[in-house]
Amino acid sequence: MSLEFVGLKEINGPLIVLDGIKDTSYEEMVEIVLDDGSHRTGRVVQIEGEKAIIQVFEGTRGISLTNTHTRFSGRPMELPLSREILGRIFDGAGRPIDGLGEIFPEERRDINGSPINPVSRLYPRNYIRTGISSIDALMTLIRGQKLPIFSGSGLPHNELAVQIVRQAQISSDEGGDFAIVFAAMGVKQDVADYFRRSFEDSGVLQRVVMFLNLANDPIIERIITPRCALTAAEYLAFEKGMHILVILTDMTSYAEALREFSSSKGEIPGRKGYPGYLYSDLASLYERAGMIRGKPGSVTQIPILTMPNDDITNPIPDLTGYITEGQIVLDRSLDQTGIYPPVGILPSLSRLMKDGIGEGYTRADHSAVANQLFASYAKVQDARSLASVIGEEELSDVDKKYLEFGRKFEQYFIRQSENENRTIEYTLDLGWKLLSLLPKEELDRVDDEMLAKHYNPQYAEEFKGE
């Protein structure tokens, strides 16, 4: 039932307050008609007895306390959906902005989604190849996983996101379509243009659904952008049987919008001023990834967030790390040496990697070579620390070999161009060639049979003089 009220009790920032409201519900959509006949959209965010607090998407400037008409729709915010959303560009509230007209929906869905029954969840298996060696080999992205990227201001996370969108693939024998849902929150106009232009120029836009919320758009819209994106992903995955990779950038902008909105409601702040429910709010987004028994599709998430002051203990990365299954951490020191992508190997991990790699998925030696590369690179850091104290000349021969291995590993394995799309076979072979720079007895994470098959000191000749 649609109800209409005239006049407001209070205006506070992006919020309006009505009194004497009955039979309304949380998240209900509202249409607001101003004195001049213009229309704005809002939603109910709080109910206290007969008082309803409504957030106005377009802001409250110019709204009158006396002559404003507020019409309650009786339903939550819904996104129009059909397969034709592929290749389309929307604003943060799901309205088309590419000039191609409206979507003719097969159905409309509540953007808040429905929780996946834990009993019906399938354990994530098989991997998504990104073509980036450091990710594919050492922190493999598993289909149905949520694997965030922790970045910092000025680091190339936008370029990395574009490269993943351009190169991401599932194995060709899997069946089922593969597509990307890309949501940008609080980005500047030039960054939005960079994303759009990159997808168009590389020819992948036809398999991408884009949601763009700009920095000058309302913060309220920023809060619903990831929910619109995930609703589109769930529809394509569980209704159309597609494998969907969702990239959300930047979750820090989302959390800051949530903090500003919480403050305007007068809620008691938690750590760093963020609302006390930040954990459950982030979980309501991240937990929409996964696979469902009896449904052929999957939703995989890569949320990207910039850590304020590179502080990994900030509430946003801290809580994200609790909810998600690992993280990819970008390293500023690697970036300063000109290495792209500057993936910090040691603080990064994928907790589901062990069950989606190996024989039948990637290659039988994948787990062994990944473990050995991690262990050897950890010893590189020890050798570098020792060299900074006593000098490189005083190191043992083995430690010098580790320093050489570390330089070649960063130069050849971690570093690759933005347009370089590596196969998993190339990546694993490159890992073995680099491990062959070390003495055989130092490779203690690999069994003798695998060593005999893959270890070859002659590989070191390929890196000489470099």
From TrEMBL:
<dbReference type="GO" id="GO:0005524">
    <property type="term" value="F:ATP binding"/>
</dbReference>
<keyword id="KW-0066">ATP synthesis</keyword>
<dbReference type="Pfam" id="PF00006">
    <property type="entry name" value="ATP-synt_ab"/>
</dbReference>
<dbReference type="InterPro" id="IPR022879">
    <property type="entry name" value="V-ATPase_su_B/beta"/>
</dbReference>
<dbReference type="InterPro" id="IPR000194">
    <property type="entry name" value="ATPase_F1/V1/A1_a/bsu_nucl-bd"/>
</dbReference>
<comment type="similarity">
    <text>Belongs to the ATPase alpha/beta chains family.</text>
</comment>
<keyword id="KW-0375">Hydrogen ion transport</keyword>
<dbReference type="InterPro" id="IPR055190">
    <property type="entry name" value="ATP-synt_VA_C"/>
</dbReference>
<keyword id="KW-0813">Transport</keyword>
<dbReference type="InterPro" id="IPR004100">
    <property type="entry name" value="ATPase_F1/V1/A1_a/bsu_N"/>
</dbReference>
<feature type="domain" description="ATP synthase A/B type C-terminal">
    <location>
        <begin position="355"/>
        <end position="455"/>
    </location>
</feature>
<protein>
    <recommendedName>
        <fullName>V-type ATP synthase beta chain</fullName>
    </recommendedName>
</protein>
<dbReference type="Pfam" id="PF02874">
    <property type="entry name" value="ATP-synt_ab_N"/>
</dbReference>
<feature type="domain" description="ATPase F1/V1/A1 complex alpha/beta subunit N-terminal">
    <location>
        <begin position="10"/>
        <end position="65"/>
    </location>
</feature>
<dbReference type="InterPro" id="IPR027417">
    <property type="entry name" value="P-loop_NTPase"/>
</dbReference>
<feature type="domain" description="ATPase F1/V1/A1 complex alpha/beta subunit nucleotide-binding">
    <location>
        <begin position="131"/>
        <end position="350"/>
    </location>
</feature>
<dbReference type="GO" id="GO:0046961">
    <property type="term" value="F:proton-transporting ATPase activity, rotational mechanism"/>
</dbReference>
<dbReference type="GO" id="GO:0046933">
    <property type="term" value="F:proton-transporting ATP synthase activity, rotational mechanism"/>
</dbReference>
<dbReference type="Pfam" id="PF22919">
    <property type="entry name" value="ATP-synt_VA_C"/>
</dbReference>
<comment type="function">
    <text>Produces ATP from ADP in the presence of a proton gradient across the membrane. The V-type beta chain is a regulatory subunit.</text>
</comment>
<keyword id="KW-0406">Ion transport</keyword>
<dbReference type="GO" id="GO:0007035">
    <property type="term" value="P:vacuolar acidification"/>
</dbReference>
<dbReference type="GO" id="GO:0042777">
    <property type="term" value="P:proton motive force-driven plasma membrane ATP synthesis"/>
</dbReference>
